Amino acid sequence: MNFLVLSNLLGNIPQTVQWNLNVALVMISANLVAVFIGRVAIQKAGIGPDLPVDKPALWKKFGLPELLATLSFGHILGAGFVLGLSNAGLL
């Protein structure tokens, strides 16, 4: 009985698309959206270590913790976008 349940679960795994340029563009877009959302939404920015590159004045309080947090959020968004678009047949 357990084998039948397991084989049914394994048979229902959705197929995902192979990595290609369209998937990369969706991930890049999701990360950019997340950075801009984080730039506006993070309330206590600039507390941790700073990035080792020069930044424009608009991004002065955007450090390493903010970058890691927004890019992590962007990868979560991007994975959802890629799975959703591939299941819809658009990728």
Q: Write down the overall geometry.
A: elongated
Fraction in beta strands: under 5%
**Domains counted in the coordinates: how many?**
1
| Count of separate DSSP helical elements | 3
DSSP strand tally: 0
Instruction: Give me the Rg, rounded.
Output: 19 Å
Q: Helical percent range?
A: 55-70%
Q: What's the rounded overall pLDDT mean?
A: 83
Q: List the helices and strands in order.
A: HHH
Distance between the termini: 37 Å
Largest sheet: none
- Structure classification: mainly alpha
Low-confidence stretches: none
What do you see in this structure?
- With 91 residues, the protein is an all-alpha fold.
- It has one domain.
- It has helices at residues 2-11, 21-41, 64-87.
- Helix 2 crosses helix 3.
List the helices and strands and how they pair.
Blueprint: H1 2-11, H2 21-41, H3 64-87
Helix pairs in contact: 2-3
Short description:
The protein is mostly helical. The protein has helices at residues 2-11, 21-41, 64-87. The protein has three helices and no strands.
Task: Label this structure with key terms.
91 residues, mainly alpha
